[in-house]
Amino acid sequence: MRKIDHIFIISILFLLLATAVTCGCLSGTTTEPGPEEGGAPEQQSPPTGSDDTTGATTNAATTQTQSAQAESNGETQTDGTPVEETTAPEETIEPEETTETEETTAGSSSGGGGSGDSGDDPDIRYVQDTVGRLVQLPYDVNGVLTTNPTTTIMVYMIAPEKLLGWNFNPGDPMPADYKSLPVVGGWFGSMSGNYETFIALGPDVIIDGANCQGTLEENIEERQANFDPIPVVGVLSSNDATHFEATVGFVGEILGDQDRASNLIEFYRNVKDEVTDRTADIPEDERRRVYYAEGADGLTTDPTGSFHAQVIDICGGVNVAECAVTPGSGKTPVSIEQVLLWNPDLIFCDDPNFAASVYTDPQWQEIDAVKNHQVFYTPYGPFSLFNTPPSTNLIPGMLWAGAVMYPDEFEDMDVVGTIGQFYSEFYHVDLTDDEVTAIIGDLPEATHTRYMTDMVGRRIIVPDEVNGVLTTNPTTTIMTYMIAPDKLLGWNFNPGDPMPADYKSLPVVGGWFGSMSGNYETFIALGPDLIIDGANCQGTLEENIEERQANFDPIPVVGVLASNDATQFETTVSFVGRVLGSQDEAGSLIEFYNEVMDEVSARTGDIPEDERRRVYYAEGADGLATDPTGSFHAQVIEICGGVNVAECAVTPGSGKTPVSIEQVLLWNPDLIFCDDPTFATSVYTDPLWENVTAVENHQVFYTPYGPFSVFNAPPSTNLIPGMLWAGEMMYPDRFADLDVEGRITAFYSEFYHYDLTPADYDDLFTSN
Fold this sequence. Notes:
By secondary structure, the protein is an alpha/beta fold.
């Protein structure tokens, strides 16, 4: 091009720019409301970078939202709308003088993009789409096509009369006028559309919705070039079921139907809030573990992170699939071995043939969801309510999936009626409750049960309301008595005094602990709602619990570990409380336990090692059995800051490792705790023991018992008052400022359900 041509063009551009600035319309100057808002348009030139004759953008917009960045970064404002920022154009030509201050107009409150009026032509407006392009549109949009199903469904819900065609064949039920619209295909998944097919229908606008994050920015200019002069508007986030508000609001703005878009947003928010409110408080291990089976064989799926499985997460489920996300249409292949390993509680499936055959297919029979008839075909009509396409059609699907996963939580809600309302308002078809049920299937009835993961990792189903419990050994029996005494049906042993008569008279059923082996029929005869199988020694429970379940079936058996470890009571007590439905009572016991642990450690934690009391735990009438460090039966010594002198092997189960008097003399403890009252009185006159320092100094203490030992057997929450007593015996000066009697008396009242008198306390704790 000749030099004079360059000069001529630059002169023309300079004059146009100066005129625009003088009019106060450069760089998106704020305007008065346009015709659709009831105001007169301000006289304004098209923003820089637009082509007034084609109605479509030819250059990048001077201001750009961060919507595209939010897609990849997950970045949104607190109201869910994409974050906006203003970026400078690559080159700015400054006029010599300006008469008005220039401003930059932020994006519209819908969050999808910005819009403005054209003062030159009251019939056109400008919107900034969600990839930052400034697009010229007619004020009145009467015909729309979109490039993929996610945005097509939004247009149908907001302004069905403006939709000119489908990307796919919708199902029933759908009004005939809309169902008969032509199928034009599009650009989504693996599909590639035909530009001529779209153009032939004469749309005013084409909405290009991203099928996968990132693809829209790469392809939209190609769409615009091929559709020119029809304007193309880019819409991101249309497939993210957690951020529909901004996208729906922006699509409503494009269509000029903000009120109907607002109605859809309100309905969406109400449904999402309803579902999340009802499932928010479900403990993690009680959440349904869900597998989404796709295809006729059920061996493709979508894990957490895929838009195709979002409903599971939104409704409070745990998606068990641990596999890669497949972009686009999803459907990651998996093996039956993986599904067996994941062992879901519930299966959603998208193929009716799979739903019909899975219960007789031998390779699926060992999966809990199949065993318990928890396989559900995801509804379809006129679009999927669960997955494809992942758009606003998922709104009623959230209600359906929530009610299927947690029928008890949705028992008092009219799910069918609410879904019917959605069909009427947004699918534009009126259905009876029976017609809605024909689409979604019969919802599961409330079972008043819970799925839980016990402490050995087994998935179990327990009643919501537990009224009767038995446990297989004393450690968990004592916890149950402390937390929910009215639910305990029997003892594994004879408890001592003091104890209220109603509880002491419960039958003794034995159990599986130490060297004992219980009787299944004895347990079953009492009709418990569930049985707690507590490990007497860690490791034995995992080996034996399936045998218990097989013999107790259909009574659920709940495995509880660490019930005999005094340093881990908090976890176990909390779990047992949840199993029993007595969380508040368990919380009170945990609080008391923590206070005692803090009181004891505060008084003994800073004692130098060589000043700590050296303690021997004498068991049996002759005192020549003991439990060393590492045994649950001697934990109180260490918790209270003592040094266990016994250097011998730990005897599993009931403990009591035999030792010789020579070993005891060699260890020469400062203090002896003993579990036999005869030994406590005879040791001072027994010549075998007279040279032991603890005996010489009269530092031999019988460990109190009533109604259970407070020091040793069984090693359960009964040790809580024992920590206070033992701490005072070992370090009386350090506990002088603590009302040990008052604390122990409070424990008896709250957790042993018995009010100790001062005489009772003296009898139990000070007689030796």
